[in-house]
Amino acid sequence: MTDFAFEPLDIAACYGTGFTAKAISYGTASVLAPARLKVGPSHIATFCEYQQRMEWIESTTLCPHPCEITGRKINGCQAHHPEARIADYLADGGRVDLYRLSAIEKLSRDERDLLSRILIRHFVGREVTYDLGGALLSGTRLFKRTRLLPSADLNELFCSELVAAVCMRLGRMNRSNPTQFNPACLLRELVRNGTFQFCHSFTKESS
């Protein structure tokens, strides 16, 4: 795993083994989804460059480590060494699948810099908090498709809302309300559109 080269805007699809993680994965399952995403991840994260290394960026309340940027444990947007967060999932018997931008979607140097500014300065640096209400609504199958879905508030973000907002800002998704996307439906949309492709799976056997 230490030799694996992560790239900016890679998406880590995390499959936990706890009750909450399994409830999210199976509660958002779909037989019509792409093969690896019929049962979706319970959590997702993305990556950007910071001080000449790649950082794992996520919005969560369940990380045991202090944020690498702020030095504090945070309930919301935070940065970590990828190896540490992948090891957390593998230690509990879970896995992490990596999805990467397709060749024609690769980021330019300017876009990579913009991605880092958005994730590090705006979200992690400001300690943007976790959006529990949005996360719960994103898991519904019908309500989130109605006009009753609240407008996005980028001062509070759950994991897939964060990744969707960044993909939209960088032109890798059509503009819409990022609050509607749970981890599974976001990845299915990106894979079906050909924007992202499965790249690698981290498991105990492969590590």
Note down, in words, how this protein is organized:
- The longest helix has 16 residues, at 109-124.
- Helices cover 30% and strands 21% of the residues.
- The relative contact order is 0.20.
- With 207 residues, it is α+β, with helices and mostly antiparallel strands.
- The protein contains six helices and eight strands; from the N terminus they run βαβββαβαβαβααβ.
- The mean pLDDT is 90.
- Helix 4 links the parallel strand 6 and strand 7 (156-157).
Which structural class best describes the helix and strand composition?
A: alpha+beta
Shape: globular
Q: How would a textbook summarize the main sheet?
A: 6 strands, antiparallel
| Strand portion | 15-25%
What proportion of the residues is helical, as a percent range?
25-40%
Distance between the termini: 6 Å
Contiguous helical run count: 6
* Low-confidence sequence ranges: none
Mean pLDDT: 90
Q: What is the N-to-C order of secondary-structure elements (H for helix, E for strand)?
A: EHEEEHEHEHEHHE
Short description:
It contains 6 helices and 8 strands. The chain is α+β, with helices and mostly antiparallel strands.
Features:
207 residues; alpha+beta; 6-stranded antiparallel beta sheet; two-stranded parallel ribbon; 6 helices; 21% strand
Task: Draw up the topology in text.
Elements: E1 11-15, H1 19-27, E2 43-50, E3 53-60, E4 76-80, H2 82-91, E5 95-101, H3 109-124, E6 129-130, H4 132-138, E7 156-157, H5 159-169, H6 183-192, E8 196-202
